[in-house]
Amino acid sequence: MPLETPARIVRALVGRGYNAEREAVTLIAGSDDPASTLARVVEAVPDDALRITADHVREVLASAPAADPPGTESTGPAAAQAADADASSTAEPDPPVSAAISHDNADHTAQSAPAEAEGGPTGRNVDPALRSLEIANDMTGQSTGTGEYDDFVKVFRDRYEKLSKMLRGRVNHRPAKAISKMSGGEDAELIGLVDDVRSTKSGHWIIDLEDTTGTFPCLVMKDKDIASYVDELLMDECIAVQGTLSGDAGILFVDSMHFPDVPRSHRANTADRDVQAALISDVHVGSQEFMAGAWNRFADWLHTEEAERIEYLLIAGDMVEGVGVYPNQDEELDVIDIYEQYEAFSEHLKSVPGDLDIVMIPGNHDAVRLAEPQPGFDDELRDIMSAHDARITSNPSMVTLEGVNVLMYHGVSLDEVIAELPADKASYDEPHKAMYQLLKKRHVAPQFGGHTRLAPEELDYLVMEDVPDIFHTGHVHKLGWGKYHNVLAVNSGCWQAQTDFQKSVNIDPDAGYAPIVDLDTLNMTVRKFS
Ligand code: D5M
Ligand code: FE
Ligand code: ZN
User: Fold this and answer.
1) Atom number of ligand 1 nearest to Cα 476
2) In the chain, at which end, N or C, are there fewer CB atoms within 10 A of the end residue's CB?
3) Residue-wise over 415-442: b if at least 16 C-beta within 10 A, else e?
């Protein structure tokens, strides 16, 4: 593997236990023979140096090329490959403290019994040519919203267009305006966004559905089977109804209700080789409750042979604890300055193997706008978090790993789904069930004006236009996973022990777990490091 790119130089240095200034990496990359420069720099830096600086590199470049250090060849791609392979095997972490929890695809939460597992030092010897990582739907830099009324009209139109398309094959819908001109007793079918849900005196339900032409009231009788769907409805989601108009044609009596949903026939894509991804979130560096020990054990374990098939690391938001996110949060901060929090996060990120491909999206604790979709971090923060050339994209984003589509979304709307739906359909103990609801609605955060802040943009980036193979969220700090119509839903827990607030509301977080997915089978394993 030639050392021509900064990413590879960073990997080689990290593998030898060094962090490096960005400028130092640029200087090495720009030298006549990066492999030899790297070897000489490593030889020349003082034994106690942890960070290679630009000055270290300049000194080496200014001096005449020294004799090759023992065991290192200095010319050509083959030599660089040797240097790199050597780099990846030099890390000798402590024995891993990890436990495999489970390995099948029924619904799961963190209660499953742990089983011990062992691993030795890494033999990761990856071929980057086998990897592929693509990101779609990144809205970073695409924000058009001004917060004006017009933007709301546009985003709702786009939402309606995208979601109604998914329902049009199932109902023969007519616009609300046309239905309002029909005669009593006629059959009618309508697709609309839920504008209001209220109960009548006798316990039936009236759902106002809105499309681009108007709003029409639809009545669901309490004794019909479909009445149980009313419990699942969130404002502004898109549904279709079929029924019969009342005698005065003023209301539609609903017989059936349809959600955009994931087709039951959905077949998940899988990778062509035995490769894995670790899906984590909610690191919360900078919080007093950040579990550095568990993180270090995870990072060390990633260097072991047992983890060598893990080639991708996805982090679904809340990299740091942030500042001023919740009232009185400052009392529990370990690092008060937001930039220092990202510096500290970056140091922790450097301890994972440099040859992982990493993707990160922001969450509600991160220093980007709170309203969703959240753009990826700005340049200053990207610079701070440049370790291992991690890719940064918006929340949400679709990330395709060797053909497997992973929808990454931080998960703030899960709080809302859990608050509004009955416990058997969504709860903190079974966060994946709340995710099933989002899949059924084909939207990561349907409800405007509630707990989840949404930014109106020209397009609704929060619609799940394509069915993901894996849906990865975090935020609620609970671990849970399961399959919904062949889509693997994973909520990934956190790396933050229980906060005072969580204690006060009885949230018992699942902290220090790493869900690992086999990309060729979509089977899940969970490792415990806490
Ligand atoms: O939130 C982690 C979980 O805890 C998520 O379900 C929200 C909830 N939470 C945490 N702190 C608060 C406060 N102060 N108010 C309301 N809800 C809260 P995260 O945002 O990822 O830390
Ligand atoms: Fe969080
Ligand atoms: Zn969060």
Assistant:
1) 6
2) C
3) bbbbebbeeebbbbebbbbbbbbbbbbb
Question: Which residue's CA is the closest to the ligand 1 atom numbered 5?
Answer: 476
pLDDT in tens, 14-72: 556 566 666 676 677 777 777 778 788 878 887 666 667 878 888 888 886 544 333 33
CA 107, chain centre distance (Å): 19
Which helix (H) or strand (E) covers residue 158, if one does? helix 149-168
According to DSSP, the β-strands at 487-492 and 470-473 are parallel
How many angstroms separate the CA atoms of 260 and 237, rounded?
10
- Separation of alpha carbons 108 and 479, rounded Å: 8
Task: Tell whether ligand 1 has an atom less than 6 A from the beta carbon of residue 211.
Answer: no
Residue 431 has which token pair?
């966060």
**Largest Cα–Cα separation, the chain:** 96
Output the CA–CA distances (angstroms, integers) from residue 10 to 56, 158, 193, in the order listed: 15, 42, 49
Give distance in angstroms: CA of 365 to centre of ligand 2. Answer: 7
- Rounded CA gap, 178 and 134, in Å? 44
Place of tokens 């060849």: 73
Do 349 and 315 touch, CB atoms closer than 8 A?
A: no
Instruction: For residue 13, count other CB atoms closer than 10 A to its CB.
Output: 23
Indicate the pTM of the whole model. 0.81
397 CB within 6 A, ligand 1: no
Ligand 3 center to residue 278 CA distance, Å?
19
CA of 253 to the centre of ligand 1 (A): 40
**pLDDT digits over 473-496, tens only?**
999 999 999 999 999 999 999 999
CA proximity to 305, closest of 483, 31, 60, 117 = 117
The answer, yes or no, to whether any atom of ligand 1 lies below 6 A from the CB of 498, is no
Q: Which two tokens stand for residue 241?
A: 């109804």
What is the C-alpha to C-alpha distance for residues 200 and 312, in angstroms, rounded to an integer?
52
CA distance 242 to 118: 57
Would you state the structure tokens that stand for residue 306, as one six-digit string? 């047992």
